[in-house]
Amino acid sequence: MRRATAFFRFVLIAATIAAAACEIVDPDVPPGLDDRLILVAALNPDSTRHPVMVWPAQLSDTVRGALARIYRAKDGSSGSEWTLVDETNDIEHFDICRWWYGYKRGPEGQCLVPVAKLEDGVTYRVEVLAEEKHTAWGDTKAVGDFAIDAAELSGGEVDSLSAEWTRSAAAHRYMVSLRLLQSGNVVASYAEGWYIAVDEMSVTTPVPEEAIEDAITPITLDVAAMAVHLYSFITSGNAGSAFSVPPLQNVSGGFGVVGSVRFRSLGVKRK
Question: Model's pTM, two decimal places?
Answer without folding.
Answer: 0.84
